Amino acid sequence: MLAKDIKPGSIVVSDGAPCIIENVTVQSPSARGGATIYKFRARNLVTKNKIDLNLKGTEGLEDADFQKREVTVMYADTESVHLMDTETYEQYAIALADVENEMKFVREGFEGLLALIYNGECVGVTLPAMVELKITQCDPGVKGNSATGRTKPLQMETGLQIHGPEYLKEGEIVKVDTRTSEFLGRA
């Protein structure tokens, strides 16, 4: 995969281990004929260490060879989250600290969670771009506030807190972007 095709969330091999790209910075030289430099901040999925990679536009990295398996969350304890493959019923455990951000969007009965399996071990999970969550707590809306662009804090059923329009009420189901934690609309 060429450097220009690598985006945040891509999983590539660096130094023989799978890494997920977290951030991409592009430096274009001002001189003619200068090579564009792509700077990547990645996290090694096995050791969990952060690494920095610098590539020219013509260089590239190899795609990681891993499996994506659809899983459901069985339970979570103080140290790890326990997942079960929906097809083979195989069980995986992953450290809670490694998937803490993703678990803010996962509720009971959640569908669409994919486990990243590398050499028979779960090294991470991926979420769909959008999830539907129920509002469990918010301030009541005032009549006539729907025309303004103001927002209010919304507490979701998973504990996640986002901001949304003032006309929303408790009990409504809304769409939330999993990459930015932003309100997208009513479900």
Automatic annotation (TrEMBL):
Q: Which GO terms describe its biological process?
A: peptide biosynthetic process
Organism whose genome encodes this protein: Botrimarina hoheduenensis
Domain Translation elongation factor P/YeiP central stretches: 68-123
Keywords in alphabetical order, please.
Elongation factor, Protein biosynthesis
Q: What is this protein called?
A: Elongation factor P-like protein
What Pfam families does this protein map onto? EFP, EFP_N, Elong-fact-P_C
Protein biosynthesis listed as a keyword: yes
According to the UniProt entry, its GO molecular function terms are: translation elongation factor activity
Please provide one cellular component term from the Gene Ontology annotations of this protein. Answer: cytosol
The similarity comment for this entry is: Belongs to the elongation factor P family.
Segments forming domain Elongation factor P C-terminal: 131-186
